[in-house]
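Summary for the lay section of the report: proteins are chains of building blocks that fold into shapes. Here we show the chain for histidine kinase and then a coded description of the shape we predicted for it.
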Amino acid sequence: MIKKGMRRQIVLHYILVVFVALLLVEVIFLLAIRTYYYDSVYSKITTHISTAEEFLKYEISGERSPNQLQKVLDFFSMDYTELEVLSTSGDILTSSTGFQPDRTITTSDVPEAVGGSIGRWVGRQAGTNESVMAVSKLIQVSSRDKYVIRYLTSMERIDKDLLNLTLASIGIGAAVMVIVVLFSFGLANSIVKPLNNITAVSAQMAKGRFTARIKGNYRYEIGDLASTLNYMADEIIRSNQIKDDFISSISHELRTPLTSIKGWSETLISGGYDPEETKLGMGIISKESDRLIGLVEEILDFSKLQQNEMKLSIVLMDIKVVLQETILNIWAKAEKKRIHLVLECEDTIYIKGDPNRLKQVFLNLVDNAVKFSPEDSSIVLSAQRLSASEMAVIVRDSGIGISEAHLSRVRDRFFQVDALNGGTGLGLAISQQIVELHNGKLEMDSELGKGTQVTVILPLTEERPTAPALPENGYE
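The coded shape description reads as follows.
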């Protein structure tokens, strides 16, 4: 007995489907053969009746004669078939066997013949219980005399042949079912064995052994499943590695400012420093505190985005004003590397968005451009209409660029092209999600050694400010 499971279900369902199909085919085949044989007998008798009737018209005169019934027997007699001549009421008048039993035929073929058609009846002969077919036809012998001729033929030989054919069909069907059972076991094993292997490897993965792999060249959906699980394990390993790198990186990022803050705090507490040194120390503490706040806020923003908890304050805004503020915020950092910031923007391009969040996006993009651009270079920040429904903000630099291998992953969370430059690896991931919350797209195009271009595509709005004048920050 097969134990419960997919193998058992496949075998049973396959056997059931084939068995039902085979049963239907055999039943239809046997019924068709039986109908063919029975119809052949019926057709032969009716053809003989038609032929005999043609001769009867010329051989028997219109007058009644003593040997009239005998002539009917002679004309309509048929080998291996009993012929009975009946009255229209079903009484037997004579028969080809010479016996004239005093009885009335009550089978359905006689009323059908009297009604004008050729009657047919198949059943068991009374007394002998023999399988027979009766075919009856009303004939006009003279202007006054009508008889029902009734042929009675045994169907025992045909039924025996049909029985043998049935037994042969059952034997063939049984042989087919044996082959089907063997084939179904093979089919079930070809499906279940790979699944058992996949299940075993998946159990190892569930225990944290992500180096385990599903081996075997499986085809179709099972092959796709195996490839997907192997790919999932690779991605988990990669994600874990990125997470570990992130923890290491963020630990370093947090330790550096904390070390500076702690060192200068202890130094200032000890006292004995002039105002200039004290001012320098307090400046470093303030700067490193801001850096810590920035790191923590970046992590919090990413957490909110992952949990769909970030809320946008959507207002009608002029994108040019946001870009101007972005340049002002990043100008000091660019000035240290003698990088020239260029703003190219039409006079007014209005969109609906959260100015603070979009400013966060543009600051991140320009900050990255400054970070990876050489000294005495330029960064262009431009805004332009693409169509009646879209506009684009483009950040273009001539920095070190990004390799093709890294370009597809640079927007992944925790991923850093150059870990030595610091950061959490969350900036671009956060920026992309903020842009998507504005129903926009963030696209990147870069070539190693030639620079990078980042394009933020946002939907335009037809609305315009209704107030007499915009506030100084350019937002409503």
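Put simply, here is one thing we learned. The chain has ten helices and twelve strands.
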